[in-house]
Amino acid sequence: MSVLDKETNSERKNGVAVIKAEFIISDHTRTLSLECISESDKERLAARDGDNGSEYNDKGDESTSQPYKKQKLSNSEKKRLRGQNKARPPPFKHIREMNLCPTLIDISESEELPICGNPKCSFLHDVSAYLAAKSPDLSSMCYVYSTQGRCPRGASCRFGSQHLTPSGRNIINITLHEKFRETKSTFNQLDKSVQFSLRKRHYDFSKSDSVIAKYDRKSKEKVQYRHSKKDLLQNESKGKEQLTKEVSGENNTLRDVNDRADVDFICKVDSENDNGSENCADGDSVTSVGEIKRSGAITDEDVIKVRTEERKRVEWNGKLYLSPLTTVGNLPFRRICKEFGAEITCGEMAMASSLLQGVQQEWALVKRHASEDLFGVQLCGNNPYVMTRCAQMLEEKTQIDFIDVNLGCPIELVYQQGGGSGLLRREKTLESVIRCMSNVINLPLTVKTRTGVYANKNMAHALIPNFQEWGASLVTVHGRSREQRYTKSADWKYIEQCAQLGSPLPVFGNGDILSYEDYEQALVNSPTVAGIMIGRGALIKPWIFTEVKEQRHWDISSSDRLGILKKYVNYGLEHWGSDTKGVENTRRFLLEWLSFLHRYIPVGLLEYPPQKINQRPPYYRGRDELETLMASPSCADWLRISEMLLGPVPENYHFLPKHKANSWK
């Protein structure tokens, strides 16, 4: 083996993607973009060197046009510029008093100008003054108006020149708008009456309360039964030394009291009689010990009714499942993935407690697009009371195909409160959550779990055999523990073990799928799985679903990738709104997605395709300027891409990347 081959193999083993030599940038020097670091980090640097607006490079000096004394960053300062930006503030805050009153936004030419009925309203009410002070339009074409015939943002739309009169009245394309209304595109909007009943606690949860109360009662009976049986056995062991005999039947035969220890095996619980009497083989009625009025095997049939024939059935096998992705797995992104071939989609993780409080932001996570033909909602909670009520409400008030229980969320706050992966440590609570939820709904109930909490202690294999008995219709196993996060490769051999133990319950596998070869290898390593869920791979290259279906590596061009971003932006404006707030929300989520998209390495640049998900490339240039820009790990370059699609970034806009490493150019 040549020296070059040895170096190449070493790079591949060390997680470095091998780029063709002609594209590698060998003399790149990283510089820190001050506009992409937090205010606290800025203050620390300014306090040390003075606020001269310079940019620091990774060698510890500054890149300025004027001479400046070069000082290296200390180890503690370097550490502060690593890791993650915690508790990131929203990138943009719009001044409320500069917004037009909602009653005046969407007024057609034929309507009279309404009068705001709120005497304390702090919004603007002078339409002419608002239009005069309004920021210039970003484009002459409004995507929402072009597709729906009416833009609901009206006078506040940043693309309003296409559908606004000089006086701020909204122009309506009646034919197109009527056609749009006939084919509803978005479902699961929060109805105001439902929101009011939730906030005032008037919503009828009697169905859930009945299920939970029944489960609690039966659980207590089980515990009391176990305790009484334990006491009985202890008393019998003591009585072995002093045998007590009793007369039996007409022959006055002596019988050992210890024979009563077999009462569990010769007696049957009279299921139709709740007074505690039992039918025994000899025809006698036996009275139970203490308060317990039952003996014998206690099944769950009277606790949780098995209603398989009533439950909606879903054919899961072999389908491509897009993982529920917090923050980035929003509705516009899911629409993109559906167009590329995703078959099952699930909303972002929603907190059950917030949904029950009618929180508008949380309800936005359960919205469903018409293209999502198999769609579910993922819930996170830490007790059966909240989770069961939320499941009942979602089935009654939304159009969804299944509900997923989150057992994988690694967020510290959620974990410490006993939700997400914290439920893996609380098996009894987990059982009550799944049993009660599955009994209160007719929809399929699915579960998404990690291997466990700690890297060296797998737990999923012990729980999965119980999930079907408890009421789950599908389980997805993410092949990493909470502790591992994404630092280790997914364990597909363990996923196969879980799938075998869970059979006939369908088990999906999840982790490290970035190409159709990864997909096929996962099926080789785990032949028992019913299907595969794709998460980060879809964020890095959403066309992975097409690659899997067509079994090919798609060397997609930079212009095609930009077209995907344009489509995402249009979907975002339709979803979040085309006013200033909606535009900047779209920009924010676009930037969050670009923090994953930039990790894609074009197939034509790789020496040994396909790219592996945990491989990182050296600095490289693309085949054109746009491809080079899209490969940049710098947040400053992501902002440039957003400006190509959404216009200039506002002066007070400050997006902080999740990882501080993305603050370097």
UniProtKB/TrEMBL annotation:
<dbReference type="InterPro" id="IPR000571">
    <property type="entry name" value="Znf_CCCH"/>
</dbReference>
<dbReference type="InterPro" id="IPR013785">
    <property type="entry name" value="Aldolase_TIM"/>
</dbReference>
<keyword id="KW-0288">FMN</keyword>
<keyword id="KW-0521">NADP</keyword>
<feature type="domain" description="C3H1-type">
    <location>
        <begin position="136"/>
        <end position="166"/>
    </location>
</feature>
<feature type="region of interest" description="Disordered">
    <location>
        <begin position="42"/>
        <end position="93"/>
    </location>
</feature>
<dbReference type="GO" id="GO:0106414">
    <property type="term" value="F:mRNA dihydrouridine synthase activity"/>
</dbReference>
<keyword id="KW-0677">Repeat</keyword>
<dbReference type="InterPro" id="IPR036855">
    <property type="entry name" value="Znf_CCCH_sf"/>
</dbReference>
<keyword id="KW-0862">Zinc</keyword>
<dbReference type="InterPro" id="IPR035587">
    <property type="entry name" value="DUS-like_FMN-bd"/>
</dbReference>
<dbReference type="GO" id="GO:0050660">
    <property type="term" value="F:flavin adenine dinucleotide binding"/>
</dbReference>
<dbReference type="GO" id="GO:0008270">
    <property type="term" value="F:zinc ion binding"/>
</dbReference>
<keyword id="KW-0520">NAD</keyword>
<keyword id="KW-0479">Metal-binding</keyword>
<dbReference type="Pfam" id="PF01207">
    <property type="entry name" value="Dus"/>
</dbReference>
<dbReference type="GO" id="GO:0006397">
    <property type="term" value="P:mRNA processing"/>
</dbReference>
<dbReference type="GO" id="GO:0003723">
    <property type="term" value="F:RNA binding"/>
</dbReference>
<comment type="function">
    <text>Catalyzes the synthesis of dihydrouridine, a modified base, in various RNAs, such as tRNAs, mRNAs and some long non-coding RNAs (lncRNAs). Mainly modifies the uridine in position 47 (U47) in the D-loop of most cytoplasmic tRNAs. Also able to mediate the formation of dihydrouridine in some mRNAs, thereby regulating their translation.</text>
</comment>
<comment type="similarity">
    <text>Belongs to the dus family. Dus3 subfamily.</text>
</comment>
<dbReference type="GO" id="GO:0102265">
    <property type="term" value="F:tRNA-dihydrouridine47 synthase activity"/>
</dbReference>
<keyword id="KW-0507">mRNA processing</keyword>
<dbReference type="InterPro" id="IPR018517">
    <property type="entry name" value="tRNA_hU_synthase_CS"/>
</dbReference>
<keyword id="KW-0863">Zinc-finger</keyword>
<dbReference type="Pfam" id="PF25585">
    <property type="entry name" value="zf-CCCH_DUS3L"/>
</dbReference>
<feature type="compositionally biased region" description="Basic and acidic residues">
    <location>
        <begin position="42"/>
        <end position="62"/>
    </location>
</feature>
<keyword id="KW-0560">Oxidoreductase</keyword>
<keyword id="KW-0285">Flavoprotein</keyword>
<keyword id="KW-0819">tRNA processing</keyword>
<feature type="zinc finger region" description="C3H1-type">
    <location>
        <begin position="136"/>
        <end position="166"/>
    </location>
</feature>
<protein>
    <recommendedName>
        <fullName>tRNA-dihydrouridine(47) synthase [NAD(P)(+)]</fullName>
        <ecNumber>1.3.1.-</ecNumber>
    </recommendedName>
</protein>
